[in-house]
Amino acid sequence: MLLNVIVAPDRPVVSYLTPLTGLTADLVAAHGVPLPAALAALRLALPPAAVLVGQNIGQDVAWLGLKEGVDFAGMVDLTGLYRVFNPAYKSFSVWGQDHLASVLLGWPPSGPHDAAGDAVKSMRLFNLHARLSTDAAAWARATATLLASSPEPSFAKRNPSHEGVCMGNRKTCTCGAPFLG
């Protein structure tokens, strides 16, 4: 691991969403650093030739304000790699990283998110896809297994609101905020 940083918020926190994030007030108070310092450390640790791999990695890159071709060379989004046409719905199916790791790698369901653990999952799933993409029969078995497996409901579906925080699920929204896109 080159870097693992907890960003200290610059505003009061309503909830750390600990069951989802694994963060607590004590953990952030003890180890959190301001966002500008975290970004400076990231840019120092990130080689310009790096290829970032992750689940919906573009969102993380946008949130961090990183620039492709400046801060890093490129991105590989696992959501796109494991996107599979589902004939039952006549559309594409995508799965979360935890579900992919559970079904394809045999990993047990995980608890709260952990950035370092998610990075390991991302790389293992990326490497698995590289192997599967060269073997049509293995890819067909993997996609059939994914299509036959039901993901666990997300934290937001299980908890439409947690400690006063609306999880923003369109079907169970409790705050009435508008949805974008």
What does this structure look like?
Helix 6 crosses helix 7. The protein has a domain at 1-45. It has helices at 18-21, 25-31, 35-45, 57-64, 78-81, 97-105, 115-132, 136-148, 155-158, and strands at residues 6-7, 32-33, 51-54, 74-77, 84-86, 91-93, 161-162, 165-166. By secondary structure, it is an alpha/beta fold. A two-stranded parallel sheet has the order 1-2. The chain is built from 9 helices and 8 strands. The chain starts with 5 loop residues before the first strand and ends in a 15-residue tail after the last strand. The longest helix has 18 residues, at 115-132.
Distance between the termini: 35 Å
Shape: globular
**What is the arithmetic mean of pLDDT?**
91
Biggest sheet character = 2 strands, parallel
- Could you say which structural class the secondary elements and strand pairing correspond to? alpha/beta
Strands, total number: 8
User: What series of H and E elements makes up the topology?
Assistant: EHHEHEHEHEEHHHHEE
Strand content: 5-15%
Strand order of the largest sheet: 1-2
Low-confidence stretches: none
Q: If helices are DSSP runs of H or I spanning 4 or more residues, what is the number of helices? A: 9
Q: Specify the helix fraction band.
A: 40-55%
C-alpha Rg (nearest Å): 18 Å
